What does this fold into?
Amino acid sequence: MKALKELGLLITLSITIMVSPVLAQSLKKTENTNPYTLVYKGAITKNEAGKVNIHLVKYKINGINIAANVYTPANYNPSEKYPAVVVAHPNGGIKEQTAGLYAQHLAEAGYITLAFDAAYQGASGGEPRHTDKPQYRTEDIYGAADFIIRYPGVDAKRLGVLGICGGGGYTLKAAQSDKRFKAVATLSMFNSGEVRRNGFQNSQVNTIQERLKQASDARTLEKESGRIPEDGRIETGGKSIFSGVASITDEEIAKTSTDLYREGYEYYYRTHAHPNSTFLYTTSSLMDLMTWDATDHIALIDQPLLMIAGSKADTKYMTDEAFAKVTNSKKKELFLIEGATHIQTYWRPEYVSQAVNKLTDFYKTNL
It folds into this structure.
């Protein structure tokens, strides 16, 4: 079982409750009393005059309700004009975790920022839950731009985007065509298509066809409704099958050898646990994920690009691959945070401060 979880092999699970006993225990450990359910250190607990404020908002993308948080700078005046940054969260993550942390820090630097939950995930709408299809995640970023450029005080001509982990891969895809984003940045970029197809660090190349078959079978189960509708529409009425990890013990975490998964389990199920955040995605999503790649057509990115990664991150190879393929950017930079692993860039103050300082300089120059 450890090997399956560690390498991200297909795990089909029938989930009947959204918060497992282990996760509930984790939430109890964190004792989250934040009124906005933010789980990161230094999070806003109340809106005060003269300080960064948080605003809970909702908007629709293709008829689906999206839950998001807007952070406004200190002494925000809606009649003035501010640059803005959209922040896309990691796979399994939500707006209350590292996406919110970076959104808050960038607001402290003078930006209006938007951290949102992807459709089908977090507090956003959409069924089946935990669907993680690249086209939806890219549309989420387009939709975030649609919303924030109309927010009071935002200068639509100075819009940036930051994608973290899986959100970084989807950000690279969105920025290929959405030229409203004048500056593009990623942190600890994770190419979801490459990993779901080839396995983490290319560990599952020999099982691609088998896993595509399992994904196809999972879609069949999802679509089974027990009847043929008169109008011929295919309905979702069957059973959703999930891949990923629903819960994990402390012993299993300790025995996980890869930094990404061991520290990821600690982050999502222990230190920064939130009931809306899980390590799950629908198995049928693999049909789309495994045929997708963040670097396809990446030469279309001509905006300034900053890619940040930890020097010790076992995911760094994905940032290196993508960065090399960006050949038409007006200017691009790869910035390494010395000594940091992938997950440590999410929360460790000494690494977060380096990333925020670099991002602030980057956006200041290019927005």
The domain at 2-366 is CATH 3.40.50.1820 (Rossmann fold). The chain has one domain: 2-366. The beta strands are 53-61, 64-72, 82-88, 112-116, 154-164, 181-187, 242-245, 279-282, 305-310, 332-337.
